[in-house]
Amino acid sequence: MSRLLQALKWLWGTSWPLYAATVLGTNVLGALAIMLFVRYLIPHPTDTSFNPDISYLPVVGSIYLVFAVLVGILVTFLMFRPVLEWQRHPDEHDPNMVRNLVMRIPVYQAILCAVVWLIGIVIAVAIAASMSTGLAVVVGVSTLMACAVVSLLTFLEAERLVRPVAASALARRFEDSTLEPPVSQRLRMTWVLTIGVPVVGILLMILGYYTHFFGDDASHILPAILALALGAMVTGYSGTRLAVSSVVDPILELQEAIGRVRRGDNDVQVDIYDGSEIGVLQAG
To answer: Digits of tens for pLDDT over the chain (284 positions)?
Structure first.
């Protein structure tokens, strides 16, 4: 029991609690937001027999959310357990294995996030399809868009929060520009998924109105369009801020290191915590 308490005390003093809270919070907020969006803001298709007062879709969604949180925590712990063990006992683990795992944590975390979301989407679409095809389309498209946005935000948050661990794992000045997506790809993905996806959602709402998918009253789609516009502003700012910081922060650190060298401090070292071409620049 005392060993468990010591391990928990050690873990609490690391950056992992903040990492877990941030990633988990983003996914839970995303799930709640899309459930409320589908439940209250999107007008129901004209062919649906959906009755929100008796439908068990929200109940199933809530149950799966709790299940997904527990499974996500367990799988994340098992996936990254070698890193935790390495942090406590560095000499007992292969540094190359740990380095590769640490630098791929953001990608693995985003993939895990997407898989958990996709399983939930399949369940939700299957339930919605039993009520109407139109409702299944609405649920499927909406949740897939939310999955894409949340998965990207999860990647960007993990990339930022794992920096202290990555700096320790790469303390031997190793650089490899293939462990993470290149900067240009990250920036393009950020724009497409945090701004482009909500805009596509707005266009689909307008298309649904013109094809009478949501009925003939344009006022019915205005709440959903407003929510998507506000969502694009929030996710666009959050994603852009995280993506820009992944480029700007290393440059500022390099600028500070160069300034110290010019002042005569020749023992300056810059932490390496990026697995793209930025990491090569940090090592150079």
So the answer is: 567 677 677 777 777 888 889 999 999 999 999 999 988 888 877 655 555 544 677 788 888 988 998 988 898 888 888 888 887 777 766 777 777 788 888 889 999 999 999 999 999 999 888 888 888 899 999 999 999 999 999 999 998 888 877 777 766 555 554 556 777 888 888 888 889 999 999 999 999 999 988 888 888 899 999 999 999 999 999 999 988 888 887 778 777 777 777 877 667 676 666 666 666 666 65
DSSP letters, 116-155, are HHHHHHHHHHHHHHTT-HHHHHHHHHHHHHHHHHHHHHHH
Say which residue the tokens 């240009």 belong to.
184
Write b or e for each residue in 115-140: b if 16 or more Cβ atoms lie within 10 A of its Cβ, otherwise e. bbbeebbeebbebbeebbebbbbbbb
- The length of the chain is 284
pTM of the full structure: 0.85
